[in-house]
Amino acid sequence: MAEALGEVPDRPLRVVAVHAHPDDETLATGLALAHHVARGDRVHVITCTLGEEGEVIPIELAHLEGDPALGPHRARELDAAMARLGAEHDYLATGSSRLTKPRWRDSGMAGSDAAAHPLAFAGAPVDQGAELLAERLGILLPDLVLTYDQEGGYGHPDHIQTHRVTVAAVAALPERLRPRLFAVLTPRSWALEDRAWLAEHVPAGNGLTVPGGEDPFPPSVVDDTLVTHAVEDPAAVSAQVAALREHPTQVTILEDAPAPYYALSNDIAARLPGREGYAELDPETGALLR
């Protein structure tokens, strides 16, 4: 049985989630963020880029794809999503600019033109990003830090870089100030249950693909024994859905089933199951603690 993500009986927890692009915070850790806000904990999100290279779903916003205006637009989406979750937010940057703009930009997928940009986050020196983040963590003093596993969830270069930077930042803190560090992971049994739910409930002919039980999983789906902690709170799904609705360039929420589900620009249906799995990381190495 997975443990609760964090318990401090005598005061509210301080939780920080570090993410690569706007919308990642709600897709990957939105349930935990909503759950901890509802508990009265202090929740803070740090975003590393504006997601300038993201694909755009709605036809009426298609003109933003590949346009410099997409980054600021996604920043506004992020502001609205944070208001829905009740979380505080800033960017990986210095001084007052951390409130409006990150130091680096979206790198796109590996091999893209964006990956060669001089400000691409994936190509930034890890120690520079870690220094900025460690400074911020030293002020926020979190009990828990949430981010991606070594594979960045699904292999995006900015997600992998976010993992590296976050691990290095936590390791750089004095031991007395170090938070517990967690990566988002999904137990294989949960992933199979989610696909079975989608196959049963997603209507045919709505233009989405429902992945089959034998289709490959992303790297963040792992053996159940590797997932040591969890947030299970179906009541928090409504806040997660409300926040996802504020990211319309990236996420489509559908309600033609017994519970809301979503799709990204790949048109693959995905469930919002009211649970998230985590594993604690060694801040010295970034490896899973067993």
Outline the secondary-structure elements.
Elements: E1 3-4, E2 14-19, H1 24-38, E3 42-47, H2 70-85, E4 88-91, H3 126-140, E5 144-147, H4 157-172, E6 180-184, E7 186-187, H5 188-201, E8 221-222, E9 229-232, H6 237-244, E10 252-254, E11 261-263, E12 269-271, E13 275-281
Parallel strand pairs: 1-9, 2-3, 2-5, 3-4, 5-6, 7-8
Antiparallel strand pairs: 6-13, 9-13, 10-11, 11-12
Helix pairs in contact: 1-6, 2-6, 3-4
Overview of this protein structure:
The chain is an alpha/beta fold. The protein has a single domain, classed as 3-Layer(aba) Sandwich (Rossmann fold). Helices cover 29% and strands 18% of the residues. The chain contains six helices and 13 strands. A hairpin with a 5-residue loop joins β11 and β12 (269-271). α1 runs antiparallel to α6 (237-244), α2 (70-85) packs antiparallel against α6 and α3 (126-140) packs across α4. The longest helix is centred in the first third of the chain and has 16 residues, at 70-85. The two termini are 14 Å apart. Keywords: Zinc. One of its GO terms (biological process) is glycoside metabolic process. This is N-acetyl-1-D-myo-inositol-2-amino-2-deoxy-alpha-D-glucopyranoside deacetylase. It comes from Ornithinimicrobium ciconiae.
